[in-house]
Amino acid sequence: MRQWNDECDVLVVGSGAGGVTGAYTAAREGLDVILVEATDRFGGTTAYSGGGGMWFPCNAVLGRAGDDDTLDDALTYFRAVVGDGSPDEMQETFVRSGAPLIDYLETDEHFVFQVLPWPDYFGRAPKARAGGRHIVPRPLRAAKLADSGETVRGPLGRDWADESAGDYLVGGRALVGRFLWAMEDMANARLRLGTALEELVVEDGVVAGAVVSCDGERRTIRARRGILLAAGGFEQNQGLRDEYGVPGSARDTMGPWGNLGKAHRAGIAVGADTRLMDQAWWSPGLTHPDGRSAFALWFTGGIFVDGAGKRFVNESSPYDRLGRDVIAHEDVDASAARYWMIYDDREGLVPPVKAPNVPLSATEDYLAAGLWKTADTLAELAELIGVPAENLTATVQRFNEFAATGTDADFGRGDEPYDRSFSGGNSPLVPIEKGPFHAAAFGISDLGTKGGLVTDTSARVLDASGTVIPGLYAAGNTMAPVSGTVYPGGGNPIGASMVFSHLAALDMARGVRGS
After folding, report:
1. What does the DSSP 8-state code read for residue 138?
2. How far apart are CA 294 and CA 299, in angstroms?
3. pTM for the full model?
4. Alpha carbons within 13 A on the beta-carbon side of 220
5. Which long-range contacts does 147-153 make (Cβ < 8 Å, 24+ apart)?
6. pLDDT (tens digit, 9 = 90+) per residue, 303-354?
7. C-alpha angle 418/100/144, rounded to 5°?
8. pLDDT at res. 249
9. Which residues pair with 33 in a beta bridge?
10. % of the chain residues with pLDDT over 70
11. What does pLDDT average to over the chain?
């Protein structure tokens, strides 16, 4: 008979929004919980989110602000954009479960949320909301936490450039921090850093526990009610990216270094089915002197051109849609997804990117690396970036004509509410006319892979026949995405991770493992 090093009711793997939601819910429902996090800090990819937003239609926070949305309208929108990318029952469960989760959390004084208007990402779809369905956590003073937030991952400025974390946790860090703060008062919640999942243990057809590694030692943990895999994606594992055909590079992901896909592999090893393993949450990436292309948004000018010197996308479209357009475009350098932002001198040499999300290096570093180019004329700039001068000149001339009329006849830039969200509702079409002219190199980045283990509406993992694997649950980027191949709105990844982790914990609280 197997000897266990430790036991609990619920073992949670991962500490992003899904992991901490699942651990908190299980502990609040009276279960004994162990949460393991492979890295040296809690928070996963969630901690890098600038907003920490949740796409939860018709929740109480929105209601108090006068929101008049309906769940039926929200479901109409979600189904219109996701289509058959996930089962109907999964979509309905997600859309209808966010508001009750907020009700559940707001009965605990550790949780405070606020509205952050953020347009739905498919503005032409039926029942899309220009103001969105989006809330965020209120910033949290770091001193509220026992360790003053030192063990909460991020912000990106600290992890990429050793900047100060500041006195407040904001965005995704605040969301994770509020769960950690709440669990400080729960003796039945044990949280462990530096502890990685290695494999799942199956006994009599039931997932009974796991083997984890900590400080070079392998240990076994028995989970009497079940195991929740909420360990993020596998974006940092280039081998798995290549195996499943995920575009882009591990070098350019925004996911933390611990997102290696160990939970995916462990689930697959015990028979879990998978879906959409070639998918990620993509974005344009400003390329930096160290070679990495990092998620960037909030462009106050400029256009993107391909290797032919021609414009090929709506530069103001939501980042995942824009990233997918880049990947699909045949005249973008496939080896590096290299393309260029072309802009004028109205804001100087630094690109008109107001949210680079990571600290910029010195201007001279970008110039020395050949990533930023400048020239007195567009023809000279074209030569510097290796595109036909006549194409670049004609492209800019045509775009300037659109800017003068306020209508982008080629790619519809400015036609949807999101396109105008960073320009105060005004047209995002800014002419390129004031020399000298500049170019900045861009690549493709991602916020993590999104393919994962197939589950039912209680987040129970299924095998290829659709049968429940007793004792095993999944959520977040470890779970096959409820949004399919699209990104319906800001807060969808975090929101879905929280909802299905919460439902998993409630399912484990209701009965014995394998029921």
Report:
1. P
2. 14
3. 0.97
4. 12
5. 149/173, 149/177, 151/40, 151/41, 151/42, 151/180, 151/193, 152/41, 152/42, 152/43, 152/47, 152/176, 152/177, 152/180, 153/39, 153/41, 153/42, 153/43, 153/44, 153/47, 153/48, 153/256
6. 999 999 999 999 999 999 999 999 999 766 655 668 999 999 999 999 999 9
7. 80
8. 94
9. 10, 189
10. 98
11. 96
CB 191 within 8 A of CB 180: yes
Q: What letter does residue 2 receive in the DSSP assignment? A: P
Q: Which of 211, 199, 261 is nearest to 450 (CA)?
A: 261
Q: Smallest Cα–Cα separation from 152: which of 175, 173, 182?
A: 173
Q: Which one-letter amino acid corresponds to residue 13?
A: V
What are the two backbone dihedrals, phi and then psi, of residue 333, each rounded to the nearest 5 degrees? Answer: -55, 110
Question: Any bridge partners for residue 120, and if so which?
Answer: 489
**CA proximity to 359, closest of 197, 154, 179:** 154
**Residue type for position 88:** D
Q: How far apart are CA 476 and CA 467, in angstroms?
A: 20
Whether 227 and 8 have beta carbons less than 8 Å apart is answered as no
Q: How confident is the model at residue 338, as a pLDDT?
A: 85
Count how many residues are written for the chain. Answer: 515
288 to 284, 295, 297, 431: CA distances (angstroms): 13, 11, 15, 26
